[in-house]
Structure formats: structure tokens, C-alpha cells
Amino acid sequence: MAEDEWRGLFRRLSSAGLMPARGMQQRLLELDDPDAVLKSAKRLGMNGILNDEMLDQLLVGPEAVVDDETPSFATGVPPPNGDSPVLDTPVSVDEPAVGRVVAPVLEPPLEIAARPHGLPHFDIAKFPLAATETDTELDIHFDITGNSITACTMGDMLSYFNDRLQRIKRIIIQGGRLPNRPIDIRRLARERKRFGNRDTTATIIGLVSEIRHGSSNLRFTLEDETGDYACILYPPGGAADTSSASRRNQLLVAGLMNDNVIGVTGHIQGDRRDVLVVDDVHLPPLPNHRKSAAPADQAVSVAFLSDLHLGSNTFLHAQWDKLVKWFHEDPLAKTVKYLILSGDVVDGVGIYPGQQGHLQIVDLYKQYEGVARLIEQLPDWLETMILPGNHDAVRPAEPQPALDPRIQEYFNSTTFAGNPCEFSLHGVRVLSYHGVSILDFVSGMRNVTFSQPEVAMQEMLERRHLAPSWRGKTPLSPEPEDHMVIGTIPDIFVTGHVHGHYCGEHKGITLVHSSTWQDQTNYQRMLGFQPKPCILTVINLHTHESASIPFA
Ligand SMILES: [Fe+2]
Ligand SMILES: [Fe+2]
Question: Would you list the domain boundaries of the chain?
């Protein structure tokens, strides 16, 4: 009962921008009229973390003074001047009325989450096990936290790009689809006479740069440790076989990403000896993936969210309350053992010019304290994991380390990891990346748009790299080893950042673009971008069945 009362009060407080600090529950519930705090805060224009200090101020604020002078509704004593008191708290018709009640304001009951947005229904039978029956099994395979060793020297930069080139080159060669053994670019330059016709082709593998789209061709440069060479790709003629023709067409339409590693097979044409005419292109092979599954006796589920942006005045408090209620009452929620938050849990401070005017909580630490309080509302059986994003209080350069230990102290039992992070839940491998590089994919590739972030995710997998472009919008840390290379294909690949939502498959890999908990911002409105907030994605680790639950 007290829990229900607290949940209702927490919801009313958080909707008014007051986030109760840890340990405030008892003091607030002991108040004769906890809702008087809301009125006082409204009059004083106060919001943020509701701690003892703020509560003291609110209890002696103008509202409290007015309440002292104005007999309360509960006392049944009419005000001296006969005016009606302002009633904005629930009233009972059995209690003696003061003045004239035009329309009693009753607290609206929380509705059960509907299924709008065209999201499909799910079959609860495909989510077979309650989360309380299984122990946690979380293994982290990669996390940069404490392992960043770059000094950002030229040597580190060289090592970073060489590592990327060698690892992706190895994947391309091991795919076994190259028509001939790749040669160094220096050797191609030296022996260019030899490759003067289609029967004597050369295959080179390198990093892409200087991309230029012509009216019907694509020019770019490939570079390896030994040199660079200009390449030109024309639409395939009739002689090209279907698979190579389709690869060439795809590249002509979609384009390339700077610093992406690809292979090409081509020949030198006529007098233009400084240009390789591309006959075929080679991306790292991505065959259909067979997912690992959790054993039947560990058939629990994982839920994904991202971009809560707590602290922003567009954080959706009421929808979070619906989520909390759902977690405590819905049968599907009972199967959810893990909640992964893939970055931007807070809006941060000083992230963009003028952000101050869009903040409900202006103190960064209080934003994180607020997130801790939000998570505390969720059931005890849930294991929460938080990764950082570009709004979080860590270095922006990727890979980003986990949140600072001082911030972690606000949280009771949450796992913190860096961004990106590779981990396994009951043997199911998850790659979680916040997704800043989606911006680079949108500006670099013609087939990627903000409204379909899953296409950017597909391109990351196909290129085996989360953020290839060095001089793009994604800040990158030149670690001697390039940790943004996708070395092992995950069973579940999850991103956020763009504030869309998607759950689907690409070549057997489950793609999740986690939904945000922030309403449309002014900036997004200006761009005409409509976010898809408040959709919880749930995936069963045994059946791999998915459900997307809307709360907006
Ligand atoms: Fe975000
Ligand atoms: Fe972000």
C-alpha cells in the first residue's frame, strides 16, 4: 500500500520536475499533505533533486505560509474572507466542502500501455521464463575503461590505421572470394605496365579517401602502408557477371565512407597509368549469421533503451511512470532480467550552445542522481547496465570509458561499461554502441537517412567498422589497436543516439535501434525530425523473439 502511495507521489513529483533524492521517501510520506510540496515548488519556481534542504525550503515557502493563514480543506473551517481555496489536489466528496467546488480534480488513473504506432503484438509464450528464477550471467569481452593507452602521437595514429587495415584486410582475404592474391600498392605502381588489360588484373586492399561522385562514376583513392593509388568505378557493362555487377552498382548508388577498408580488383587502361579501373569491389564478407541462444533453463529476456536525457525539460516523466508500473505488473516484464541503457542517460551540461535554457536540472551530478532514482523505481530482479554517449560526463573520443566512479556511487547495483562494449548475456553476444557515427554514415552514404538508422547499422556490419571516418563528426581516440573494428559478429547489435526506433534482422543478426525517453526538441523540430520515444525493446535470449512496447 505504502509502495503504491509512494509510486503515485513519485510520479506527481517527477512530473513537476522534482526528483526525490535517495532516502526522501519516508520523510515525504510522513508529511500530512505531501502534495503541498508541489504547490509550494510551483509558486517558488523550484525544481531539480528534491533533497532535505530543498524540502525544508518548500515547507516554509510562501505556500506553507498561505496554508497557515488559510484554513485547509481538510479542517473544514471556511476562510475568513469567504473565498474558495484553490484546490489542485484530490478531494473526497465525503469531506466537508469549503466554498464552491466547480469541478473536483481527481487524479487520472494510469492507463495500461496501448499498442499504437503499428508495432506488432507479441506472443507471451515465446518469453518462457521469469527473470527471478535465473542468476545473472554477464561476461564483458571488450570495454576500454582503464585500457586506453594512446598518447595521440604520430606513432599511435599510424598504428591505429595500420591495425584497422590489417585486421579488415585479413577478413577480406579469409573470405576466399578474391580473384587473385592482393598486392601492395607500391608494387602496383611499380608494375603498372603489367596490368594494362582485363586479363591481367591486380587486387589491392586499402583505406578509402578523396571520394568524388561523377555523373556516372565514382572516383576514390586507396591507401595502404606502402602508398596510394587513384581508382575509378564505372557502371558495369554487359560483360560483368551478376554478383560483381551488383556489387559495383551498389557502391555507385550508395557511395563510400572515408577511411573505410575495401579491396578492389582492376586494370590500367590505356595511357591513364595513374588510375586503376575497377572491375570488382570486395567488402569483408558477411555470411548469414547463426545466433547463439541461452539454454532453455535460462530463457530470460533483455530490454533495451537509450537516450533518456534526464535533466532536459523534454524528458517524458509521465511515460516513465507508465514504464515503472508496467515493469511491476505486466507478465512480459517478469521475464526481463537485463535493461541496457546505451548512452545519453542524462542531457548533460554545456553540450551545445544555449543548452542551459532547455534544462530542467542544471547540475550535472544531480542529473545522474535523478537517473539513479529513476532506476530505483524498477523491480529488484532487473540488472541494469549503463554505457555512455556523447551527452555523458566522459571524454567524447570513442571508445569512451565508463562513467566516473563518483557518479557510479549514486547507483545501487548497476553495471557500468564503456562505449562501445561487447558482452554476453547467457552466451548471447551483444555489441552495444551509442551511435554517434550514424551522422557520418548519413552524410557519407547516399542510402542512409536519419529516419532509418538501421541502414547505417547494416553498413557498419558490412564494413566491419563502427565509425570509419577520422575527420567526420565522430571524435575518435587513436588507440594503437583500433577497437572500433567489428572483429566478432554479434548476435544482437544495438545503437541509439538518433532517437528513432527499430527492431529487425540483418543477415541473421538482430538489430536494435533503442528508443529515447525525450520528446521532440526544438532543434529536431527545426530539422523536421520526428523522434520515436518511449518504446521498450524486449528480446528473449533463448527464443530470440522480440517485442516492442510503446509507452507514449
Ligand atoms: Fe541522445
Ligand atoms: Fe547521443
Answer: 2-69, 155-282, 299-550
The Å distance, Cα 325 to ligand 1 centre, comes to 24
At 416-460, the pLDDT tens digits run: 999 999 999 999 999 999 999 999 999 999 999 999 999 999 999
**Contact of 420 with 429, CB cutoff 8 Å:** no
- Are β-strands 202-213 and 261-269 bridged in parallel, bridged antiparallel, or unpaired? antiparallel
| Mean pLDDT calculated for residue range 263-286 | 91
| 299-550: CATH number | 3.60.21.50
- Who surrounds ion ligand 1 at CB < 5 A? 307, 344
Q: What is the pLDDT of residues 172-226, one digit of tens each?
A: 999 999 999 999 999 999 998 888 877 889 999 999 999 999 988 999 999 999 9
Task: Identify the weakest region by mean pLDDT among 76-85, 143-152, 267-276.
Answer: 76-85
Distance CA 99, CA 84 (A): 5
Cα of 41 vs centre of ligand 2, distance in Å, is 31
Query: Is-contact 314 518, C-beta < 8 A?
Result: yes
Closest ligand to residue 345's CA? 1
Give residue 14's pLDDT.
73
Cα 162 to Cα 154: distance, rounded to the nearest angstrom: 12
The structure's pTM equals 0.82
Could you please state the CATH topology (level 3) that the domain comprising 155-282 is classified under: OB fold (Dihydrolipoamide Acetyltransferase, E2P) (2.40.50)
242 CB neighbour count, 10 Å cutoff: 8
Rounded Cα gap, residues 460 and 260, in angstroms: 10
Q: Counting ligands in written order, which one lies closest to the CA of residue 433?
A: 2
Please give the distance, rounded to the nearest whole angstrom, from the Cα atom of residue 522 to the centre of ligand 1.
14
Q: For position 115, what pLDDT does the model report?
A: 59
Ligand nearest to the CA of 314: 1
CA of 58 to the centre of ligand 2 (A): 35
Span 494-535, pLDDT tens digits = 999 999 999 999 999 999 999 999 999 998 998 889 999 999
324 alpha carbon – ligand 1 mean position (Å): 21
Distance 514 CA to ligand 1 centre (A): 10
> Concatenated DSSP letters for 347-380?
--SSSSTTGGGGBS---HHHHHHHHHHHHHTS-T
Gap from CA of 529 to ligand 2 centroid (Å):
15
Distance of alpha carbon 149 from alpha carbon 480, whole angstroms: 8
pLDDT band at residue 54 using 50, 70 and 90 as cut-offs: confident
User: Taking ligand 2, which is a single-atom ion, which protein residues have CB atoms under 5 Å away?
Assistant: 344, 389-390, 497
Residue 18 · residue 47 · CB < 8 Å: yes
Ligand 1: centre distance to CA 503 (Å): 18
Which backbone phi and psi does 313 adopt, to 5 degrees? -80, 5
Q: CB-side exposure of 82: number of CA atoms within 13 Å?
A: 0
